[in-house]
Write a structure and sequence with these properties.
This protein is of the alpha+beta class. Among the domains are: 28 residues; 62 residues, no CATH class. The protein is built from four helices and seven strands. The strands form two sheets. The protein has a four-stranded antiparallel beta sheet with strand order 4-5-6-7, with no helix packed on it. It has a three-stranded antiparallel beta sheet with strand order 1-2-3, with no helix packed on it. Strand 4 and strand 5 form a beta hairpin. The chain is flat, with a radius of gyration of 40 Å. 5% of the residues are buried.
């Protein structure tokens, strides 16, 4: 770039700087901005009594927190108070409502057996092979079996499933059938 071109570029930049300074100083941009926000009217909050309520403030300051002693950040429940423990030991009566034991985990019906698993070479998920006598079922994870069970996980030695109606989870082990020796 020649000296003449450098001089022209400097002169143009000085003129632009002077124009920016003039318009900023004259306040045209401030007037436009204030005119834009001046159209909105101020509306105070609807508070019935804006005065401080000293009686409620002093009452809240005089209250004392009495915690139960439980750690709010722990999932473990604290032990029951000593007098409740003493009463439970002396009365030998059940405390609170009796909760029935949970039902046993679901099992696959009848003679349904999980006898193996496999994968397709193109990298798809495992497929489980189940038999019910002469019928063979091939299911993948997430598939339903007999319209009652959803396969949740196919492991190397077990098959985890969920009973659709109740949401209960169950598992069955891989059963290895003894191989019969060929007749000679």
């Amino acid at each position: 770039m020649s000296e003449r071109n450098k001089g022209i570029a400097l002169a143009v930049l000085v003129v632009v700087a002077v124009l920016v300074w003039y318009y900023e100083r004259s306040g045209d941009s401030v007037t436009a901005t204030s005119a834009q926000y001046g159209e909105m009217s101020y509306k105070p909050l609807a508070v019935e009594n804006p005065a401080l309520q000293r009686d409620k403030q002093s009452a809240s300051q005089k209250t004392e927190y009495k915690g139960s002693g439980r750690d709010l950040f722990s999932e473990i429940a604290p032990p029951p108070p000593q007098e409740v423990r003493q009463a439970a030991v002396t009365s030998h009566a059940p405390v609170g409502p009796q909760i029935p034991p949970p039902p046993p985990p679901p099992t696959l019906p009848g003679n349904m057996k999980f006898f193996g698993y496999g994968t397709i070479p193109n990298g798809t998920a495992k497929r489980a092979f189940l038999t019910d006598g002469d019928n063979v079922y091939i299911v993948g994870e997430g598939d339903t079996l007999l319209g009652k069970y959803r396969v949740t996980k196919i492991g190397n030695a077990n098959l985890d499933f969920e009973e659709i109606a109740s949401g209960r989870h169950g598992s069955t082990q891989l059963t290895e059938e003894p191989v019969a020796a060929p007749a000679s």
